[in-house]
Amino acid sequence: MRKLTITVVMAIGGIIFLLPFFWMISASFKPEEDVLAFPIQWIPETWNAIDNYSQVWFGEGTFLLYYWNSFKVTMFTTLTSVTVSSLAAYAFAKVNFKGRDLLFIIVLATYMIPPQSLLVTQFLLFKWFGLIDTHLGLVLLNSFSVFGTFMLRQFFLGVSNEIIESAKIDGAGHFRTFFHIGLPLVRPAIATYAILRFIWTWNDYQYPFIFLRSENLYTLQLGIYQFADAHGSIYSLMMAASVSAIIPLLIIFVIGQKQVIDGIQLGGVKG
């Protein structure tokens, strides 16, 4: 009875948390006059999905351009961050050099610094390098992650040192050992971090808002704000734009959920 009660309570809580999501999807299919109808019509009586989504994607505005900008920035950021963080994690876990542990503690300590406190310094630095109002600047801002380095280092520590030593005896250098031995053994962890990095970058509003000036460079999060501002309080179109924005996240999670689960299980065993 105790387990049954907990299961029922958690199920009810899950449904409550999902209600806004269901309302958003339902509102994106309705004509505007039915969106705020009371009581709520969870299943639309009149379907207006084609008009809503076609107006969002192909109507006045540059929603499609915002979508492409977000996709481009997110893909390059994820690729760069995964590469840099995995290389750093391998070095901290398997490469012996003087001051390694002290350097890792210093890197880890920077995780305690709120990102907002660095915005002024980052802005001045990027302005000096001419990276303001560029997609390259957004990619470089998230090219290294302390969390990603720490997470992947823990998985690399679980790789047997005997395997690494065997590769060295066979003449493999650090890069060859990393690419041919290290990466395949921690692939679930790499996939997990890549999915997390993709989600964080796709949903990021702060950095694009501060470092982008040209509207043709706006990412989707800024674009939705512009879209909502241009269309006032037309909730059906705003909800259609919001649903369109989360589709890539759902696809990424569905494709990579097995890798995420494997990564969690592997981390539990290693821990």
UniProtKB/TrEMBL annotation:
UniProt GO BP: transmembrane transport
SUPFAM superfamilies, A to Z: MetI-like (SSF161098)
A single Gene Ontology CC term: plasma membrane
Residues forming coiled coils: none
GO molecular function: ATP binding
UniProt keyword list: ATP-binding, Cell membrane, Membrane, Nucleotide-binding, Transmembrane, Transmembrane helix, Transport
Record-annotated ABC transmembrane type-1 domain positions: 67-256
Record flagged with keyword Membrane: yes
InterPro entries per the UniProt record, alphabetical: MetI-like, MetI-like_sf
Keyword flag Transmembrane helix: yes
Subcellular location: Cell membrane
Membrane disposition: Multi-pass membrane protein
Spans through the membrane: 7-25, 73-93, 102-124, 136-156, 177-200, 234-255
Family in the record: Belongs to the binding-protein-dependent transport system permease family.
PANTHER family assigned to the protein according to its UniProt record, in alphabetical order: ABC TRANSPORTER PERMEASE PROTEIN MG189-RELATED (PTHR43744:SF12), ABC TRANSPORTER PERMEASE PROTEIN MG189-RELATED-RELATED (PTHR43744)
Listed name of the protein: Sugar ABC transporter ATP-binding protein
Species of the source: Virgibacillus necropolis
